[in-house]
Amino acid sequence: MLLSLVLHTYSMRYLLPSVVLLGTAPTYVLAWGVWRLLSAFLPARFYQALDDRLYCVYQSMVLFFFENYTGVQILLYGDLPKNKENIIYLANHQSTVDWIVADILAIRQNALGHVRYVLKEGLKWLPLYGCYFAQHGGIYVKRSAKFNEKEMRNKLQSYVDAGTPMYLVIFPEGTRYNPEQTKVLSASQAFAAQREFLCKECPKIHIHIDRIDKKDVPEEQEHMRRWLHERFEIKDKMLIEFYESPDPERRKRFPGKSVNSKLSIKKTLPSMLILSGLTAGMLMTDAGRKLYVNTWIYGTLLGCLWVTIKA
User: Region 254-270: what's the mean pLDDT?
Assistant: First the structure.
């Protein structure tokens, strides 16, 4: 009986992060909404500074579960500075949680609050967060001929003009997963299983960082496209070498020396305790529970209305 209970509890362990992350969403959006109203007549830099701090609190809670609760080991290769920088983060897109890797790197530069994403348009309909991501500086784009390059350039330029700190995350490859392509999915899963890409537990994440100075990136559009293709060819060759190198010493590792980067729990635990505590306190009273439910309902509706008007 006791053994069955222990096994059941262990199998349900991944429910806790989902419950906490989703459950604290109304609390977070309420806190942000209050600050948005209070800062309406203040210079934009004051709003942005506290908004970045709030975003850092929530994403720190995400990383608490990802890096401490799961016991994953982060191995870094290449050049990751400790100081904040304004950067454009270009990465390969292999799963729906690749955005967490950007958080992993940003928090190690004390720049977690500055992370902003170029997002596919469908994500703007996410309850509560769809609207907030745009308010935080995210940019929604359509991956089609309807892509409005001028609008995106104008929005990015407005951030530059305002001096907004940017850790801009872009996945140039776009979505790598389409549930309607069943044959492609089956072939991909068979290929991954054959090479042991898939596992129930993934105790290590290998991250290779290559910092490129702005002056080394071509500005002309055609040259930029060619440069980006070349960078991803280099990335693909590294991944092939990582998984399939004939030399066992080079397999399952990137070139160069790896650093086992352990994130201090002091950077993430306070955020989890604060948001969880505030949410629990809200749910302990009738008025709090009513506010909580109304935030889910009306916050989602107002957010969808806002992104519809702004589309």
Answer: 90
